[in-house]
Write a structure and sequence with these properties.
177 residues; mainly alpha; Ferritin; 70% helix; 0% strand
Amino acid sequence: MPAERFVEALNDQVANEFAASHQYVAIAAHYESQTLPQLAQFFYQQAVEERGHAMMMVKYLLDTDSPVRLREVAAPEGVFADHIAPIRLALEQEKTVSTQIGELFKVARDEGDYLSEQFVQWFLKEQVEEVATMTELHDVAERVKEFPMWLEEFIARENPGGGRGDPSAPEPAGGTA
């Protein structure tokens, strides 16, 4: 069984991942309401991915006979000043999640919980990709800020963050992300 401090921290992170998913649904709905379908689809997919991360963590807790303690998830931000503000929020969110995952890794290491440390390593790698994807999207959005449809074209052409399917990813609870 993982160290108790790690179990508590992982339960907290499950809530953080669900909150990130919740925020991405709000962003996607905002873009869909603005008739920006590529941005909407991109963020709906990000929401599914974040939910998948939470479910992977739930599965790890279950597999290690640890308690699953779901936490409250706050309402997401849903009103944005312009079409770049949601991307800026998403980038900051990914940076925050990277810090949270790093702290989770530190708890496992400090507790000498080597199996949990190994479990978290995949998420560290994933966060590098997540921050890079959001940074790229933000950079392009800033360059074409006067022409949001060019951002739509960029997403359609480049498919940022797409094409995953990492066979080394942890299994999610319920068998699907």
